[in-house]
Amino acid sequence: MAFDEELAARVRDAVGEHAAYDEKRMFGGVAFLVNTHMAVGITRDVLMVRVGVDGHDAALADGAHEITMGERTMHGTVGVDAATTADDDALHAWVARGVERALALDPKR
Predict the structure, then answer these.
(1) For the chain, how far is it from start to end, CA to CA, in angstroms?
(2) Residues β-bridged to residue 79
(3) Domains assigned to the chain
(4) Which Gene3D superfamilies would you find in this protein's record (predicted)?
(5) Across the chain, which distance is largest between two alpha carbons, in Å?
(6) What is the pLDDT of residue 95?
(7) How far apart are CA 101 and CA 56, in angstroms?
(8) Total-model pTM
(9) Per-residue confidence band for 52, with pLDDT thresholds at 50, 70 and 90
(10) Which residues of 17-48 are buried (b: 16+ CB within 10 A; e: fewer)?
(11) Could you give the angle at the alpha carbon of 67 between the alpha carbons of 70 and 31, nearest 5°?
(12) How many CB atoms lie within 10 A of CB 50?
C-alpha cells in the first residue's frame, strides 16, 4: 500500500519543528516516532495521529475519524483526511498534538 510522499515530506518538516524523530515503515505507510512512540503516521493520504485514549473523543469532535485495523478500532489514534491536512496550519496543529502525546509517554526500552 502506497502513501502520499508529498504529505510525508510536509509531516517530516512539521515533526522536526517539535522534536527529534525516527521514521519507520509501518501499516503499509510510514510512521514518525518521537520518544520511541509513534506520534503520527501516514497511510495512503490519511494522517494518523496518536491522541491517547483520553484525547480520542476530543479529536473526533475536532474533525478526525476513527481508524480501524481489520476489525479493531484503534482507540487513542485517529485519522485526519487529506482535505484537512492540505491546510498547513491544520497539519501542523495535528502533528503537534501527536508529538505532544508521544513526548508525554515514558520511552520504550
Answers:
(1) 30
(2) 48, 65
(3) 5-103 (3.90.1150.20)
(4) YgaC/TfoX-N like chaperone
(5) 37
(6) 98
(7) 12
(8) 0.94
(9) very high
(10) ebbebeeeeebebbbbbbbebbbbbbbebbbb
(11) 95
(12) 25
